[in-house]
Design a protein that fits this description.
The protein is of the alpha+beta class. It contains eleven helices and twelve strands. A five-stranded antiparallel sheet has the order 2-1-5-4-3, sandwiched between helices. Strands 7-9-10-12-11 form a five-stranded mixed sheet. The chain is elongated.
Length: about 450
Amino acid sequence: MRTSLFQKLLWGVLLLAAIELALLNLGTAAPELRWRMALATLATALAGIAVAFLFSRTLRRRIGRLRVFVEGLVAGPAQIPLPGSPDELGALAESLGRVAAQVNELVDKVRLEGARRDAILTGMVEGVLAVDKELRVTFCNAAFATAFGVSGPVPEGLPVLRLVRDPDFLEMLRIVVASGESVKRRMHLTGADGRSFEVQAAPLAGPSSSGAMAILHDITDLERLERVRKDFVANVSHELRTPLTAIRGYAETLLDGALDDPDHRRRFVEIIQSHAIRLNNIASDLLALSELESGRPPLAPGKLSVLAMLEAAMRTVESEAAMRKVQLGWGTVEDLQVMGNKIKLEQAFVNLLDNAVKFNRGGGEVWVEASRLPGGKVAISIADSGIGIPSEDVPRIFERFYRVDKARSREVGGTGLGLSIVKHVIEQMQGTVSVESQLNKGSRFTVVLPEA
């Protein structure tokens, strides 16, 4: 139990008075003199008590103000003013004032750095998670929570198991906390919609606690692009190897003596020519696709007549259709105008019509339609009564080199790039292309473009 300064002074004065009275009682002075001395001692004691009380109250008030000031140092710059006096307490107050200014400056810096850190971590597109040694959440930014389908802020102290239920990820955090070493892995995390992440976990060591921090970098799109690149290289290699092998084989046959065989040399040269044309078509389509994917701004669009574009494309495929006995027909075609590049849009229509003819059956039909849609859009449809597309292949037909029937595609001489070119051309003109198909019943490709 604390004793106030006044109480200590009071007890001291009373003790001194008691000692003096005891000495007087033991002395040899006359009773009257002892009585006067006792009164003087009592008066002195009372005066001392009064002075002690006043001094103690003043001192207690000043010390109380100092205590309140010290306890509120971290609350901010608005503090209770310190008393000023030339004594030791005044010097102490001045020292505390200087310390308070320094403490406030340090606290402001810490708060500013903390706010900057929180803003950076919260605004990162990478997921950031910090845990303590018991694997309880100490920080989680919005990107991490969103990756695992959590809406709203993640409460501090939440067990990580309730946020992430991937055993490999949890084991990784345990290893980092236990060993104090950084770990980096690629993971397909459970609960993150099958997305892939490059996870880098590092220890967090403090003076009173430890833990780990994990940063999730989403590499799903990078992995997809890597697969596309590998598929592209493999498909290009295969598409180039087939005609090159044929050209080399027939050329060697001619050089080995077939040049003197009048019954076969012309056919061999025609085969070489057809494969050379196929190589040229592949190179042309690759260049066209590369130009579309380069990101270079397209040429300034102009007003184009849909009817004129379709008529030009129909004339281009007429001979192929006649050779395969496919009937070209017209549905309802309104004379509408769209904004776009003439050469590229005509190429897109030619590719769609060419596919509709090649993947048709003898005696089949191909017809085109064009109409106005609400919202200033124009819809152009190219339909056929051909072999159709299986439902599982429909989502992939606009990929480069993807073929539904590889044997038939090579037979009819396609490069596997036509629909990919169509998709890029139409999207570059702020439009969309879609397909509806039924196996053995036919397909319908619909192009939607803004009306001029």
